[in-house]
Each structure stands twice: as structure tokens, then as C-alpha cells.
Amino acid sequence: MKASAAIRVVFLSILFLISSLFCVAQIITGKVIRVTDGDSITISDSQGKSIRVRLFGIDCPEVGQPFSKNATEHTKQLCEGKDVRVDVKHIDRYKRTVGVVYTPENIDLNLSLLTNGLAWHYRYFDQSVLYEQAENTAKLKKKGIWSSNNPVAPWDYRKNKKNKKKKK
């Protein structure tokens, strides 16, 4: 009886420790030193370390797609050379920090790109109602990518491009 109680306490302690690791929200700050494209930036933190950041919950058009340059320019206008705050969600398989980026004016960059029709809501990774509503409103208003007759989602564009390379 005492052994099972001890095991239960150890098990619950380990469970608590593991769950607390996933609940810790991390915020990082830094100056935007590079805008790679609409949904990828690089910041320099207070120690001068470069951190690649991928915007969470959205996917902007790829280079070569309509509105790719517009999305990149929008991101540059809002944050290039400025100090931003990143609400970190996770680190992806490419070792990029994935998060929601806030400008010095407290503008949610991810949401701004959706609102202006310069990104798709990436529902596979994010279930945010706010982001879904922003995309739907941009569609109704035919803003940006939604002004096109048949916009191709970036993940489909990448997949098609990859399949074409395989056929060669």
C-alpha cells in the first residue's frame, strides 16, 4: 500500500513537471534586422543573438506568387528596423522560433497580414477564431489575395512546385 502511494506521488510529480513545461509562455524581444518574406523575419535580441522568427498561424504567398511582394512590403513597413515582441508558440523543425509578432504600436503583425488579405489562416496549426474571422472578412471584401479569381494557397503552391521537380 505504501509503495503504491509513493509511486502515485512520483507519477503525479512527473506529470505536473511535464505539464508545467508546456504551459510556460515565452516572450522574446528584439530589433527586426531582416524581413525574409511576409511571414519570416530575423530579430537581434539584447545579447546580439540573431533569432529567425516564423509567424504563427498564417502563411503568406511564396516568392513568385501574386501578392508575395505586397506581403513582404507590409511586414517591412510595420516592423523592419523596429523593436518587436514575439509571443513564442514553439520551435519548428527548421529551428525557427514560431510566434505572434507585435510591433511597438502593439499591432499583431500576423493578424494585420490576414486582415489585409496578404496571408492565409493556417488552420492546420492554428484554430484561432479571430484569425479565421480576419481571413473571412478579407475574402468578403476581396482584399489582396482574395481579389484573385483562384488564389492558390502557399502550401499547395509549394507542393506543386515540389512535384514538378520530381517529374524532371
UniProtKB/TrEMBL annotation:
Residues 159-168 have a biased composition (Basic residues). The keyword Acyltransferase does not apply. Keywords: Endonuclease, Hydrolase, Nuclease. The keyword Oxidoreductase does not apply. Residues 146-168 are annotated as: Disordered. Residues 26-148 form the TNase-like domain. SUPFAM superfamilies: Staphylococcal nuclease (SSF50199). CDD domains: SNc. PROSITE patterns: TNASE_3 (PS50830). GO terms for molecular function: endonuclease activity; hydrolase activity. It holds the Pfam family SNase. PANTHER family: EBNA2 BINDING PROTEIN P100 (PTHR12302), SERINE_THREONINE-PROTEIN KINASE 31 (PTHR12302:SF3). This is Thermonuclease family protein. The lineage of its organism: Bacteria, Pseudomonadati, Bacteroidota, Sphingobacteriia, Sphingobacteriales.
